[in-house]
Structure formats: structure tokens, C-alpha cells
Amino acid sequence: GMGNLLKVLTREIENYPHFFLDFESKSERRSLQNYDHLISSFLCPISRNQMGNLLKVLTCTELEQGPNFFLDFENAQPTDCERDVWNQVNTVLQDSESILSGLQAYKGAGQEIRDAIQNPNDMLLQERAWNSVCPLVIRLKKFYAFSLRLEKALQSLLESLTCPPYTPMQHLEKEQALAKQFAEILHFTLRFDELKMRIPAIQNDFSYYRRTISRNRINNMNLDIENEVNNEMANRMSLFYAEATPMLKTLSNATTSFVTENKTLPLENTTDCLSTMASVCKVMLETPEYTSRFNSEDTLLFCMRVMVGVIILYDHVHPNGAFTRSSKIDMKGCIKVLKEQPADNVEGLLNALKFTTKHLNDESTPKNIKTMLQ
């Protein structure tokens, strides 16, 4: 009851938020309205002597580490106010697993392409390579088209989670279902990019396709695919797949565009939302009291991917980036948490921090942080 809540909320608050986000449990719990009532009652004018550190946590006073508050993802069903945006984003997220499955099953046409290149006069081998590559290009177009849908979904969530009159802290408290979807988008994005980095065949297949189309060497074959992937689409797809982490790059650009296009919205509304998510995930990962409650390793990976994702978005949006001493994200602590995990689980995430962030190599980045990521 109240005793346990007080313990969670008041534990070492001068350092960072301490609370548990339940990404796994599906059991029925008290309604979100009850949590809103609980939080609202805490925020009523009351004596500091009565509530002490709890009031500090919930009102962000006398703290140096940014937003600190109770965030509960246990019952992430959308409220009436969230439902329109939630339904829109859910339509996109419903397709995310099939996208990942399609990428995971991608085998490439390397052998067929090599045979065709080594035997340029053998039209049978040319046709075999072409017929192997065309279905793969259609699949790559599907992945790219999904990235555009994901971009719009992310911007819809950002608009909902940062718009006035509420602060980012209040948004994350009141709009639990949207906050969970935001985390799920980042989770998908890092999973997609980790898989893509292990499949060099993607760029090889697409390069062969573009060379073949441009030389127009196969005039007697079925080139209806150009109706599906014309030159303009091929150029955009080529830029997308040339990125080491294409989905994360898409989201970074989307977040930057969101800030640029919403000039009346304070930048802090967006960066505080991102830094708070990073802090929450970091604390969950470094606190055995919380990690012991995870039912599977997948939840650990979920938290790590979300943490890295919001760090990268923050680094692209904030003028000074995520790595400076004034950053609201404890980068040293976040990197430390990652390095304490099995290397196979975090190699892709550490690479994303190295190669997808914007400010890592700035002079303002402390040397010890650069060293940790070497």
C-alpha cells in the first residue's frame, strides 16, 4: 500500500528516479483513473513536513537530475483522450513483428548474382539472378515503406506527449498507453537495425538491381518491377539502406523535424520527455530489486533498446547533445549499465551510440565517456 509506494518514491531521490515499469504483466490491476486520482491527491497543497521527500519527487523541486516521478506502465490501456492517437499508432505497430520476421528470413541472392557476373553471356544465369533479386527488392520496399509509417506514428506520439498545457512529466503520468507505444517503437527500431547490420546481402542485392536497371541489359525480361520501384523510389531506398542504422536514422530525422516544425513548442518539452525515459530505463536496469522481477531476458533487452533509442533521439534534438556534463541524461551511468550486460546483447546498441549519435566526438564530451565507448 502507501508504505511500499513511499519506499519506492523516496529511495535515494537526490540521484535519480527509482520506480519499476512493468512491461510484462498482463493481469488486471487498478484502473488508470485511480492512479490519476492518487497522483492528483499527492499534488494538492500539503505540508512539506507531511509528505517530505515524496513531494519533492512528484513536484520536481530541489532536484538536480531532471524529472523524477512515479511512472507506471502496468495498465497501459488507452483512456478516451488517448484513444484516437493510440489506435492510429497501434495500426502501425501491429505490423512490426511481420516486418522483423521478413527481415530475419532475408537470405539474399548472393550466389545467383555471383554466377551472373562471372558468366555475363549466359542469359539463363542472368535471368535466374534477376528473378531471385526482384522479390527481394519488393520486400526491401515494404521495409522502407514501413519506416515512413513509423515516422508519422512517432511524430503523432511526440505531439501528444509534449503539447501544452501539460508538462512532459504530466503527459507521461497521464498518458501511460502512449508512453508505452513510444517505447515499443524504439524497441522495434533497435531490433530492426541490429538485424539489418548483420545482413550485408541487402545492399549487395539492391546494388545489383540498380545496376541492372540502369544498364537496361535485360530488355527481354519482365521489367514490370519498375512500376513498383521506379528510379525515384530506388534512390530513396538506396539512401535508407546505406545507413548503418536506417530505422533509427529515420526516427532521429523525424524527431528533429518535429522540433523544427513546431517552433512555438519549447524544446525542453521534447528533450525532457526523452531524458526522463532514459533515466527510467537506466534505473530499472541497474537495480537488482527491479530486474529480479523480470520474467524473461527479453524485458532486459527491451529496456536497453529503449534507453539507447531515447539517448540517440535526445542527442540529435538537443543543441548540446546527450554527452555534455550539463546533459539531463547520465551518460556514464547508461554506458556502464550496457557494458555490464553480455557482450552479444549490447554490441549493436553500443555501435548505435558510437555511429548514430551526433555529438559524441564534440570537444565538450568528457574524455572518460569517449573512452568507455571505444
TrEMBL record:
<feature type="domain" description="CYRIA/CYRIB Rac1 binding">
    <location>
        <begin position="68"/>
        <end position="370"/>
    </location>
</feature>
<dbReference type="InterPro" id="IPR009828">
    <property type="entry name" value="CYRIA/CYRIB_Rac1-bd"/>
</dbReference>
<dbReference type="GO" id="GO:0031267">
    <property type="term" value="F:small GTPase binding"/>
</dbReference>
<protein>
    <recommendedName>
        <fullName>CYRIA/CYRIB Rac1 binding domain-containing protein</fullName>
    </recommendedName>
</protein>
<comment type="similarity">
    <text>Belongs to the CYRI family.</text>
</comment>
<dbReference type="Pfam" id="PF07159">
    <property type="entry name" value="CYRIA-B_Rac1-bd"/>
</dbReference>
<dbReference type="GO" id="GO:0030833">
    <property type="term" value="P:regulation of actin filament polymerization"/>
</dbReference>
<keyword id="KW-0472">Membrane</keyword>
<keyword id="KW-0449">Lipoprotein</keyword>
<dbReference type="GO" id="GO:0016020">
    <property type="term" value="C:membrane"/>
</dbReference>
<dbReference type="InterPro" id="IPR039789">
    <property type="entry name" value="CYRI"/>
</dbReference>
